[in-house]
Automatic annotation (TrEMBL):
This is Thioredoxin reductase. Its cofactor is FAD. Homodimer. One of its GO terms (cellular component) is cytoplasm. It is an enzyme of class 1 (oxidoreductase). The lineage of its organism: Bacteria, Pseudomonadati, Campylobacterota, Epsilonproteobacteria, Campylobacterales. The keyword Disulfide bond applies. InterPro entries: FAD/NAD-bd_sf (IPR036188), FAD/NAD-binding_dom (IPR023753), Ferredoxin-NADP_redctase_2 (IPR050097), Pyr_nucl-diS_OxRdtase_2_AS (IPR008255), Thioredox_Rdtase (IPR005982). The keyword Oxidoreductase applies. Its EC number is 1.8.1.9. Binds 1 FAD per subunit. It comes from Campylobacter sputorum subsp. sputorum. It comes from the Bacteria. It catalyses: [thioredoxin]-dithiol + NADP(+) = [thioredoxin]-disulfide + NADPH + H(+).
């Protein structure tokens, strides 16, 4: 029986593992379907982690996290977790691919989230080279330059406002002429002189060259097209939270989930199920930043220690 099973080895999972093992838990395994590090390992530049002044790529940035947590006894098992179940005796079963069952006294779920794709030509080819899903991360690279933002929800409009503070102009491309974002945010966007609304159109293609993105081709509902010449495009068309591991065989979720499919937690990262914690991008109101995921993981790791002490 494990003291603690951590599902997901991104910043939240690694930080949870570090705090739990350094805090005295002996038998802790962090399951990740791949190598630990999480989504930030796909980033070419990270420059907003406090205290790390030198710009690094995500892979180099995460490597010491893995070494540091393993030094205190955290074990990594490369395995896809299919499901987490709570048993009648209060223990948890972690079901791995191939139906292997691992029992644990407590579980921290840190499986993250993935931005949805627009689905246009060039999106994958230029991802990280002009196509971004994170304004806080990459907006600064477009200081005083023009960018496109795609989407009509709260995220797209809030990020368009954020980018308008940095960039010389923001083209907000949305497939309808009505926004689903909060009316107050829509008003702010409409009043912002640096934001041009490009409505009733979808991004048909992202073009570029060796330097990265050069053009965004918008196709309007009436069939016309427009070529917007920009070095950057930010897509905010919704997120898929990786909450599959919490889905039970009857289709219900093990713990309470928000209407956006995020795990509902309190300030101690406790879910609605005793002994089950969630941390990082998977939780409600996550700012989707490495520093925040790491903080969540530390809180959950300490919470797991307290929970196990309470069991004894
Ligand atoms: P993740 O990092 O998503 O880690 C989740 C882990 O869970 C993954 O390793 C995954 O393999 C594993 N997993 C998922 N499902 C399963 C399963 N069923 N079984 C086993 N393992 C599973 N943030 C910043 O602060 N600054 C930046 O500059 C920045 N740039 C970014 C650039 C890019 C391109 C991207 C994509 C994100 C960026 N972010 C940035 C956001 C940051 O990466 C995330 O907020 C952070 O990684 C979230 O950490 P997490 O541990 O919650 O989840
Ligand atoms: P969202 O509300 O699902 O909005 C996604 C937007 O992208 C929609 O406008 C949608 O268009 C558009 N879209 C989807 N697929 C597209 C495609 N392939 N091509 C072009 N456009 C596409 O996602 P979100 O903005 O990330 O917000 C997620 C949730 O978090 C929401 O509930 C939101 O309210 C919440 N949130 C709240 C705040 C806040 O309260 N301050 C901030 C951020 C997020 P349609 O409108 O036509 O469907």
């Amino acid at each position: 029986m494990l003291d603690l099973a951590i599902i997901g080895g991104g910043p939240a999972g690694l930080s949870a593992g570090l705090y739990a093992t350094r805090g005295g838990l002996k038998n802790v395994i962090m399951f990740d379907k791949g190598m630990p590090g999480g989504q930030i390992t796909s980033s070419s530049e990270l420059e907003n982690y406090p205290g790390v002044a030198q710009v690094q790529n995500g892979m180099d940035f995460m490597t010491p996290w893995i070494e540091q947590s393993q030094r205190f006894g955290l074990k990594h098992e490369m395995a896809l977790v299919e499901r987490v179940i709570k048993n009648d005796d209060k223990t948890f079963s972690v079901i791995l691919e191939g139906n292997k069952e691992v029992k644990a006294k407590t579980v921290i779920v840190c499986t993250g989230a993935v931005p949805k794709k627009v689905g246009c030509k060039g999106e994958d080819e230029f991802f990280g080279r002009g196509v971004s899903t994170c304004a806080t991360c990459d907006g600064f690279f477009y200081k005083n330059k023009e960018v496109v933002v795609v989407g009509g929800g709260d995220t797209a409009l809030e990020e368009a406002l954020y980018l308008a503070n940095i960039c010389s102009k923001v083209y907000l491309v949305h497939r309808r002429d009505a926004f689903r974002a909060a009316p107050v945010t829509v008003e702010k966007v409409k009043k912002n002189q640096k934001i041009e609304l490009v409505l009733n159109g979808v991004v048909d293609e992202i073009k570029g060259d060796k330097s990265g993105v050069t053009d965004v081709i918008v196709k309007f509902n009436d069939g016309k097209t427009r070529d917007i010449k920009v070095p950057g495009i930010f897509t905010f068309v919704g997120l898929n939270v990786n909450n599959d591991v919490l889905k039970q065989t009857d289709g219900s979720y093990l713990c309470d989930i928000s209407k956006n499919n995020e795990v509902i937690v309190d300030l101690k990262m406790k879910t609605s199920i005793e002994g089950l914690f969630a941390a990082g991008d998977i939780r409600i109101d996550a700012p989707r930043q490495v520093v925040c995921a790491a903080s969540d993981g530390a809180i959950a790791g300490l919470g797991a220690i307290s929970y196990i002490e309470m069991l004894h």
